[in-house]
Specification:
mainly beta; six-stranded antiparallel sheet; 1 helix; 6 strands; 14% helix; elongated
Length: 106
């Protein structure tokens, strides 16, 4: 992450609460996979703008279903709202959103 940027959305893998899936019949029988991500939103030095952008991103992702390359994808946010992290050493406001994504295995 480039900390000189005052506005950015960063994606990090997050293994929090990720459970391994055991399927009778082996890996070929799995109908979906799951991935956990943490989104870090860095959004300027004005708290109201950062809070608004975090809420917009949260609403955009909340309970989203879509199709990408003919694969069904479902995104579930893991918390009730974006988590306020405070500011970095440059005064840039930061929020975190934990996301779980399910996608088809074809």
């Amino acid at each position: 992450m480039d900390i000189t940027k005052t506005k950015a959305i960063c994606v990090y893998p997050n293994n929090r609460n990720q459970k391994s899936i055991s399927i009778v019949g082996g890996v070929g029988s799995i109908g979906y996979y799951e991935r956990n991500f943490q989104l870090l939103l860095r959004w300027g030095n004005i708290l109201d703008e950062a809070e608004t952008k975090a809420s917009e991103l949260y609403t955009l992702l909340k309970d989203t279903t879509s199709t990408i390359s003919s694969l069904k994808i479902c995104i579930l946010v893991q918390d009730n709202e974006p988590m306020f992290l405070g500011t970095d050493s440059n005064g840039v406001y930061e929020y975190s959103i934990d996301v779980k994504m399910y996608y088809e295995n074809k």
